[in-house]
Specification:
The protein is an all-alpha fold. The chain has helices at residues 3-20, 33-42, 48-61, 65-70, 73-80, 86-103, 112-116, 123-132, 143-152, 160-167, 176-189. It binds iron/sulfur cluster (SF4).
């Protein structure tokens, strides 16, 4: 498909999703950047809903970067265990908070390079922070983004970094962050991985290649 054609289709998809899901916000609850980093780490192989159940208690007990940096990782593990992979998540969260405290003055950095230097932070998490916290163009290639982009024919890749590379030139920079949040909402509501996609009820029916 010609570049101009796929770009026009991608922009139409952006507009349709915007109309269908006007409020596109991250489904992880957090009111501070460092809390978002913690929540994102906990969300690996866990539902956002489960993470949102755990984090209020976690942040009440350790209410700052410094407090969490000084916490015993075994105590963090005991709290985050319901999210799965408790030991490695607790270890990463502890190391990440210590690095934030010691190298970044307690502030979450605003560049991809610096974010990727933090323990437990990959491109997906870094893009989420860049988009949600700092308002920068960011493609968050989570499972919904990859599945829907492939089904729609916006990429034929599976690797998150390659999907990100394919989507970046297609999605207007100012829309990319919200677009990814909307893919999550649309994936859950209509284009699920668990059930057959409900194409007949989908607002993207005429724009989608339906590579199912
Ligand atoms: S048309 Fe079908 S495959 Fe395409 S996004 Fe909608 S539900 Fe998913």
């Amino acid at each position: 498909m010609a570049d101009a054609e796929i770009r026009a289709r991608a922009e139409a998809i952006v507009d349709r999703l915007k109309a269908a899901y006007p409020d596109a916000e991250c489904t992880l609850d957090s009111d501070e950047a460092w809390k978002l980093l913690v929540s994102v780490r906990l969300a690996a192989q866990c539902t956002d809903a489960r993470v949102n159940e755990i984090t209020p208690g976690l942040f009440a007990r350790w209410p700052s970067v410094d407090a969490l940096a000084e916490a015993d990782p075994a105590e963090i593990e005991a709290v985050v265990r319901p999210c799965g992979l408790g030991r490695s998540k607790a270890r990463d969260i502890s190391a990440c908070m210590r690095m934030l405290r010691d190298r970044f003055g307690g502030r979450v950095p605003d560049t991809m390079e610096a974010l990727l230097s933090l323990p437990g932070v990959g491109r997906k998490s870094a893009n989420l922070v860049l988009g949600d916290v700092y308002g920068k163009p960011a493609i968050v290639t989570d499972t919904h983004c990859i599945r829907l982009s492939r089904r729609m024919g916006l990429t034929d890749q599976k690797d998150p970094a390659r999907v990100e590379r394919d989507l970046l030139p297609l999605i207007p920079p100012g829309e990319s962050n919200a677009f990814c949040h909307r893919l999550v909402l649309h994936g859950r509501a209509v284009c699920s991985a668990r059930t057959h996609p409900r194409c007949e009820a989908c607002c993207l029916n005429d724009l989608c290649d339906k590579h199912i």
